[in-house]
Amino acid sequence: MSTTDAFALARQRFFGYTEKMGLDQRFPGQSMPEHLTEPDRSVEVRISLKRDDGSIQVCRGYRVQFNDDRGPYKGGIRFHPLVDLAEVKALAFWMYMKTAVVDIPFGGAKGGVAVDYQALSLAEKERLTKRYTMIMVDELGSERDIPAPDVNTSSREMAWIMDTWRMIHGRYQRGIVTGKPVEMGGSLGRDTATGRGVVFAIEEAAEQIKLDLGTATAAVQGFGNVGSASARFLAETGVRVVAVSDAHGAVRDPAGLDIAALQRHVKEAGTVVGFPGAEPLARDELFAEDVDILVPAALEHAITEQNADQVRARMVAEGANGPTTIDAATILRSKGSIVVPDILCNAGGVTVSYFEWVQNRQEFYWSAEKVDEELRRTMVKASRDVFAEAARQDCCLREAAYRIAIDRVAAAAAGRGVQ
Question: How confident is the model at residue 418 (pLDDT cuts 50, 70, 90)?
Fold first, then answer.
């Protein structure tokens, strides 16, 4: 399934769950399923980027705002060649589901530019980011739509966005973005929040399936911000991380990879490939590793009906957004694997983004220990809510998470009036 099908996949799952929930009967005449699956606004723009050699490169840029029934739109910005409107819609949809699952007062949004960002110079990256912000500036604001880092973006890009907004409006608004540098009002712990949240969710799921993390093994697909942080925190809990992959390849060590050393290697080499002391592994062979936990932490549709049969892990913890197709999820469940869904598992990032937004509004900043404590509290509560709902409904964790999110957003929409 291509990324152009991502939004169709999201809607298909949603309607399958709402039909069982009787949403039309609970909210008669309000077209609630349609209200909750149509974005409020989709913006597609042309971005003309001046290259260092004076030439102009034309790129497509996007921002989708998807449901603000529970609060301002919230979602990252990604720069990647495969970005398209369908993908951005799906990501914005999943974001507002995610914020509802962990019960923070945001809606969903996502933005992106279809560009080979890694091929640009530093100056070109800054011009592209600031040009995107200038075009989208009327859509953004701390009470309206709050961007954050995503694929190929970081605190650096968030600083550029905040600076552009300040130059246009002539005033500071620190809450315009989250994930910005700490010295500019960012939150401690935000850079590793998604990975830490993944591990908090894994710990709760491990209790449910009686998995001893002190003797468990794991494989991590994708070694970017989320994957590397997940691997690090898993190792700190005692899990033996035996294989990791990135876009270039994979490495394995049955005795357990030294994650700190691997992170240093990636910083120098730009890839996990060639890590001293580890065996090379074909990238796609990672899914077949005989491990207890598999963490897909790259892009959408990593686990499909073509490779789901190869997965041997007892638990699949979705660090990425939409990494498992519908058919693949069915196969995994038939094999007895538990899937911790993305809208729960990777919600740590947006949760700490919320904490950052709160700190910006108060201009009172938290210690790293307080951020970690509050993140753990939020992720544990959300996880236990989802497990309890799954038990009540005799359904998978994904359906349980969707049920909780749909109930919360539908109640807010009905309370506001759907007109």
Answer: low
